[in-house]
Amino acid sequence: MKKLILLLIASFSIQIGYCQEKIKFGTVSLEQLQMDKYTEDTLASAVILHESSINYFIYDRTGFKLVSEYIVRIKILTTEGVDMANHSFLLYKGRSRDDSDNHSGLTGYTHNLENGKIVKENLAKKYIFTEEINENTQRVKFAMPAVKPGSVIEYKYTITSPRYAASRTYYFQRNIPVDYSYFSIKIPEYFRFDREVTGYERINVSVKDENQTFLLGQGKTHQCTAELITVEARWLPALKDDGYIFHYQDFSTGIKFELRSVAFPGSYYKDYSTTWNGVAKQLIESNSFGGRLKYKNLFISFILRNR
Predict the structure, then answer these.
(1) What are the φ and ψ backbone dihedral angles of 4, each rounded to 5 degrees?
(2) Which residue has the higher pLDDT, 280 or 181?
(3) pLDDT tens across 111-140, in order?
(4) 2-273: what fold?
């Protein structure tokens, strides 16, 4: 009951006159470099000073795609915090480039204070690696250079994905404190998403309608209405894995989106709501699961009998 009440409070915390905290990427202040402790957690090894995720839809010759722009700035406070120099993100790999996630604009800087002067080193290509996890997943890894206690590191990248139907959760908490986090998504009227707030920390949510214009090519445009959802969080404590929780991120404060339906008036409608029949169908059609089962009909009967 206590968790339910906290979730409801977080879900309906609406802020009027929403204003995103801006940073000038590539430039840090002397105050940030001289910072040696985080006031809200004096034992923290590092702190996320700023994190933002801006999400929106575009339209090209293959259809709608979801674009996600990320920016992160982190202050390194101790030797243990140097581990925050290593980062990675996953990409879905389809049959072609049009069916796959694509990333662009991966840029980063490490800022240090040397003899009273701010010295900046950029993220070079030699520190960026791509590895194949399996036939459908890639991991992009990168390591920020010249990181030491006192450094401020920042990086940004953009992911463009045709998989707008995939369930997504944006987490505001990390294993180090977060001073400021911002999330926004602009959803065209044709898409209906169910959303759920998770975790226990307070976040501010704003929802409003806006107009949106898509470029269709050859000078043609299309206008529609869209729902703009913005979320802001401040002073979030570190979420620690105590070793007794199977998946500690399940307790992280975040917001989850799951596509319910897509509807283009007079031409197309698809319901993405999950049923047990749908689960059985998806599993049996998966090459990595159903494709390896010898008794497929028996599996389907079992699922439907125990739903």
Answers:
(1) -60, -45
(2) 181
(3) 999 998 999 999 999 999 999 999 999 999
(4) Immunoglobulin-like (2.60.40)
Residue with tokens 């204070």: 113
What whole-number distance in Å separates Cα of residue 184 and Cα of residue 79?
33
Q: How far apart are CA 77 and CA 148, in angstroms?
A: 8
- Chain region(s) in the chain for CATH 2.60.40.3140: 2-273
Strands 46-60 and 178-188: what pairing?
parallel
- Residue 212's nearest CA partner among 178, 185, 183, 244 is 185
CA 127-128-134 angle, to 5 degrees, is 140
Q: Of 67, 51, 65, 23, nearest to 183 (Cα)? A: 51
Q: What's the first-to-final CA gap in the chain, in angstroms?
A: 26
CA–CA distance, 239 with 181 (Å, rounded to integer): 15
d(CA 113, CA 34) in angstroms, rounded, equals: 8
How far apart, in whole angstroms, are the C-alpha atoms of residue 168 and residue 193?
11
Pairing of strands 254-264, 191-198: antiparallel
Residues found in the chain: 307
Question: Whose structure tokens read 């840029």?
Answer: 107
- The answer, as to whether pTM is greater than 0.85, is no
